[in-house]
Each structure stands twice: as C-alpha cells, then as structure tokens.
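Structure in, sequence out. Go:
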C-alpha cells in the first residue's frame, strides 16, 4: 500500500501549553480515517499542521512524500481541505466555486457537477448569505473536491448537516475512497 500521510511524534504548544503531544499515525491510499475527540482535544490543530498552517515542534509530517510546511506549493493541486469554511456571503455558490477553481489553477472544473455531487444544484445561483449553515458546509466540501484531490481533509464535515445530508456525505466519502482518495476527517 502507498502511504499518503505519515505523522511521526507530532507535538504542538501554544503559550507553553501542550495542545498535541507525541501524536503518530499514517494513512494509506484509499483509507478513511477519523480523528475523534472532545472539543479542544487538538483535532483541528493537527489538521492545521498537516495543511502547513502551523509548524509542529520536534516531529516529522509527510503528505504525499513532501513536508507540507515547506513544500505546500507542490501539494496544493493534489489536496482538498475543509477547515472552518470562510465563504464570502455576497457571492453565489457558483461564483465561489469558480473563484476557488481559478485559485487552484483548475480552469476546467465542472462547477455544476460539484454542486450536484454536494446536493446544491438548486441553490448554486443564490447568494451565499441566504444559505443555511449546512449548505455552507456542503459548499465548502464542493470547494475541497475541486480537481479530484488525492488527499481530502475535512474538519467536522458533519456539523450542520441533517440526517439525509450525513448519509449522503458518508456515501460520497466511501465512493471517493473506493476510487483511491485518502480521507482524513475529524468529529467530536
């Protein structure tokens, strides 16, 4: 099996307080792995380290055989991330996805297909300010899926979804994993 993510002895402190201490795990191609824990347990911090936003202390992180903190530019087009979605309310769903696709250099992203996959085909032309929290979560997921990433990282993706939305997301994640996408998600 091909190792997609490897974390060895990751620790992180903020103002002298240990948020993560000696965390190690790895993910193989096509696996779905969940980080489970209470609020404040360090799940989001771990994901921010993997995404290169935080530098870990005294440890090694390898994502697609690269250090995400120093080589993020080589990973950007292979990774999809949903971390606390910051979505501009004045855009429509379609406009937001088009902007993300352009930022990722993916000029051929099928926006309609992404909206349909995430259950937003009927609201893609509406302003995001009129979206529910769950719809914003789905839109963030659609943005993470741009470019068919090899690695997908989702922080609390089930928050705000109704039971049907949860089931649909579970089925989508299983389908992606069966196609070789490696998925890391967090939940409390």
């Amino acid at each position: 099996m091909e190792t997609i993510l490897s974390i060895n002895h990751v620790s992180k402190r903020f103002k002298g307080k240990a948020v993560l201490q000696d965390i190690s795990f790895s993910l193989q191609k096509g696996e779905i792995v969940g980080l489970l824990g209470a609020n404040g347990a360090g799940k989001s911090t771990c994901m921010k380290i993997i995404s290169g936003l935080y530098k870990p202390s005294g440890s090694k992180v390898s994502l697609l055989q690269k250090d995400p903190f120093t080589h993020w530019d080589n990973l950007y087009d292979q990774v999809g991330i949903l971390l606390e979605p910051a979505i501009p309310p004045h855009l429509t769903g379609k406009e937001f996805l088009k902007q993300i696709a352009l930022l990722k250099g993916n000029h051929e992203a099928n926006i309609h297909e992404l909206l349909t996959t995430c259950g937003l085909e009927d609201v893609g032309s509406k302003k995001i300010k009129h979206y529910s929290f769950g719809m914003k979560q789905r839109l963030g997921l659609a943005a993470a899926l741009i470019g068919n990433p090899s690695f997908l990282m989702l922080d609390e993706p089930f928050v705000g979804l109704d039971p049907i939305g949860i089931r649909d997301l579970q089925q989508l994640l299983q389908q992606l994993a069966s196609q070789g996408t490696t998925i890391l998600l967090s939940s409390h």
